[in-house]
Give the backbone structure.
Amino acid sequence: MNEQGMSVIVRTVTRLVYGLVIVFGFYVIMHGHLTPGGGFQGGAIVASAFALLLVSFGAAGLKGRLNKHLLQSLEEVGALAFLGLAFAGIGTAFFYNLLANSGSFLFGASVPIGPSAGVLNAGGTVPLMNWAVGLKVLTGIASIVIVMLIGARKEETE
Amino acid sequence: MRKVALLVAFLFVSAFLLLAATSMRPFGVPNDAAMDDYFIANAQAEVAANNVVTAVVFDYRGFDTLGEATVLFAAVVGVLTLFRKLKDDEQWGEAR
Amino acid sequence: MNVGNFPFVIAALLVAFGLYALLFKRNLIKMVIGVSLVETGVNLFLVMLGYRSGGVAPIYTYAPEAKEMVLPTPQALTLTSIVIGLATTALLLSFAVFVHRHYGTLDVRKIKELRG
C-alpha cells in the first residue's frame, strides 16, 4: 500500500488542496506580530501539508523530486539566522531589539497605543525571528517524517 | 501479586492527584499578576508589536526560545543519525 | 455560571489516564501514547493557570474596548513545552522501530532476554 499511495480520489483532492495549505501556513508565519500565530505554529502547518503529500503519493512518488541535502541545509540556515539576530544588539544586551521604533525602512515604524488595526511594518527583530524559526521548524519536521518513512520501510524488505 | 501491588499504587497516586486538583485556588483569579500587567501595558510602546504573546516569546523571554530551538535541533540530528546508511562492513554496536 | 474547580479536575484526569496506559499495557506503542497523554494534561494545566474571569485574548488588533486581558506568560511557556514534547515523541518512536527490528516483537515482557 505504501509504494503506490492511496486511491484516485485522495490523490486528486491532494493535488487541489496542498497549495492552499502552504499559502495559509506562510500567512500565519508572516503576520505573527499582529494576529495569533507566529513562527512555531506556521511552521507546523506547512510541515503538515508536506506530510499530506507523503501519505497520498507514497515514498515512490517523491523519489525524484526531493533533495534531502537541501532540506538539511535550510535547517542550518534557520538556526544560524536566529542566533545571528540574537547577537545583533550585543552592544546593549544579549537579545536587545535593535530595530524597534528606530524609523528605518526594515520594520522600524511605531504603533499607536490601544486597540488598532495593525501596522505590518512594525516590530523590530520580531518578524525576522518569526521567519527564521518558521523555516527551522518546517524543514526539521519534514526531515524527520521522510527519514522515518524511508528508513523503516527499506529495512523490512531485506 | 505484582498486579495487585501495581493497582494499589496507581489508585493511591490518582487519589492524590484528584485531591490536589479540588483543593487549588479558585479558577479565574490569579495570585500575582504584577509582571504580566507590566507586559500588557508596555508591549506596544517598547517592542512595537500588537501581539503581546509573541513579544513575550521573542523579546522579553528570548533566552527560553533559544533553548527550545536547541532541543529541536538536537532531536532532528538524533533521528537522522539513527536512520543513516551503514558503510559496507559496519554493524550496529561496533565501535570503529 | 460558576464552574468551581472543574477545569483543574479535568487536567488531573488526563494525567491519571496517561499513567494507567503507561503502567498496565504491554505494547511499546501504547506506552508511548500514555507518555503523550501525560504531556497533554500538563500543558492544559499550565494554560489554565493564567486565566482571568471575563478576560479576552492578549492581542491589541481589533480588541474589544474596555475589557481586561488574560496573562500572556503561561501561554508562552506552554509553546516551549509542546515543542519539547514533539522532540521526545519522535525519538521514542525511532527507538521503538529499532527494538522491533532487533527482537522481532514489541511485547515488553519478551525484551528482557539478550539474544544474537
